[in-house]
Amino acid sequence: MSEPGSTILLTGGGGYVGAATADALLASGYQVVVLDDFSTGHVDTIPNAASFRTGSYGDTTRVENLLHTARIGAVVHCGAKSIVAESTEQPELYFNVNVQASLNLLDAVRNAGITAFVFSSSAAVYGSQSALYLGEDLPSDPINPYGATKDRKSTRLNSSHMSESRMPSSA
Fold first, then answer.
1. Best CA proximity match to 75, nearest among 45, 106, 44
2. pLDDT value, residue 5
3. Using CA atoms, how far apart are residues 97 and 11, in angstroms rounded to an integer?
4. pTM value?
5. DSSP state of 125
6. pLDDT tens digit sequence for 60-74
7. CA of 119: how far to CAs of 68, 128, 158, in Å?
8. How far is residue 67's CA from residue 31's CA, in Å, rounded to a whole number?
9. Which position among 30, 94, 126, 146 bears the catalytic label?
10. What is the pLDDT of residues 139-156, one digit of tens each?
11. Is residue 126 flagged as an active site residue?
């Protein structure tokens, strides 16, 4: 990723995983700019040392502007809709946010010339596995729309990496 001291855009920093990621990045010496729409996250979970912007990571124009004005060197993408029950009731919403908006984010990152991108996936992509350890070598088998959208996003990011050698795949 980028060198400590550089600025990282963290999507979904108001959520549990995002806030913990912000803490770890700050402790490692990075500057952190959180982008979150706070539809499920909470502004009070964002560390004081991080700055934040309210908005959608799917808004390509806004994200491109933020990437340039904040001098972002890398992106960590934790943002997602993640409530399994809601995903079964509103699968189109989960596709729009978890897949389409993420692809918009990736377009903005590419357009800004940023080559460091980390995607926070979910064990939900593996469904009900009998394995004790869920490694990335296991086949995906999501059992709900949330897991399916995370799997689809990961697949699209990996496909993007294959076609765009300058963009790393999900981590």
1. 106
2. 65
3. 12
4. 0.78
5. G
6. 999 999 999 999 999
7. 20, 22, 10
8. 13
9. 146
10. 666 665 666 666 665 655
11. no
